[in-house]
Amino acid sequence: MTSVITVPPSLDEHSFEQVVDQLQGVAPDARLLVDARHTRWASPYGLTALLALGQTREERPTLAVPEFDDTASYWARTAFFQHADGLFDLRGTVPKVKGGETTVLLEITPVVGSEDVHEVVGRIQQKAQQILQRELRIDAKATVGFAMTLSEICQNIVEHAGRGGWVGVQAYTYKKRPPFRRVVVIAVCDAGLGFRQSLESAPGRVRNDRWDDAAALEEAVIRGVSRFRDPGRGQGLAGVRRYIGRWDGKVSVRSGTARIAIVPPWDDDVPLLEKLAPFPGSQVQVTIPERVTGALR
Amino acid sequence: MMMHIDVSSVLRQTLSCELYSNLVTRPTGAAVRTQIEALLADARERSLTVIDFSHVGMIDFSCADEVVAKLLLRYVAAERDSREAYFLFRGVTDDHWDAIEAVLERHGLALVMETGDGARIVGMVNEGERSAWEKVLELGRAGAADVATALGTRADDCARLLEGLHRRRLLMRLGDGYVAVGGMDELHA
After folding, report:
1. Is there a contact between A57 and A43 (Cβ–Cβ < 8 Å)?
2. Most buried of the four, A280, B50, B115, B176, by CB within 10 Å?
């Protein structure tokens, strides 16, 4: 019997939870069809998380590709199908990549080793400068911080995941809550160890009763704790927090059964979600919004 | 002995790749620092090394921790080592500063940076240390009594400050006086 997972029409960091919920009770070696035929839109988080889902399966799953031409073309331009092809049997019409104007700042790119991080940072720099200044009206100085943020999040995969993951960067218009504004979003997803397991591997670590995925996320994201004893460790996420604080951005990290977020005034997300359906690895999203003059909205 | 290390050249040698000019990732930083330490291995008892970031595109936090913080930590107050290694950082721009500042704060470190206006002490120093260091830089070569007189402070307090700055390798001791790192062009270190 094949289990069918329906991908929601709009796939982002929130609606991906519907996908994870449907996976509960489906054995890793069960046959799986991921049905994205009616999906119209996906954020970089949605696309990279779908790849991570493919990575978790022992039996190669099937992915029914979006039926809407625009959606499928967009997914192709993000290089999603190029990577999905290695994880899923693709069912439906996979369009060829066409040129032209795109809001994709960084196509979905695998991150396995340190050299991938160099590649990603090198590729993003020029495009990021253009988009941050032109679309987000952010100072050119923000470009370096953006690349640093990207680098540090990607390094989490290299250092902690124990297996490869994916990164994607895209600009789009945030429409969850008015006023609508342009945002640039970095998504980095893997299906590796996750924060709790990574921190548990620290030598001499003592567990307590309150230890769970949420506690692990609080330690790593808020307090900068790392599994390494080296006092210089844990600075990457601290630097990311500082960067998003400076530019009124948002960061959210999902791992295991919890999700933590640093939420700016323009968003209405919750800071901590616990007891989510379990999903392996870590899924990170950083959002940098357009600079709005005057008070924060 | 004075050495000049172009960090971007070390980076290219380390990665065996001409394409990357960014100091990113911890393994890259560790490899670059190891190369720098190898270059320093031949240094004499006392050395001054210019660490030149002029051709480095950007540096991230992890790399700054490896290249800057760990390099300084190894040589700061390295009393077990008979060698005294001093560093002067050149070509550090705003593009590098966020990451370097963060790691200096994290480890309680300070360094001397060469800017268009001359040498400057940056990082974790208190006002007293900063004033004392700047006075030594201004005087060229000075003892605790000279600096105390110039600052209007007690000589023994000043002596402690200068000794602390020397241990942090921000001042070099020459005879019974001190010279600021970055203010010793005419001296042979």
Report:
1. no
2. A280
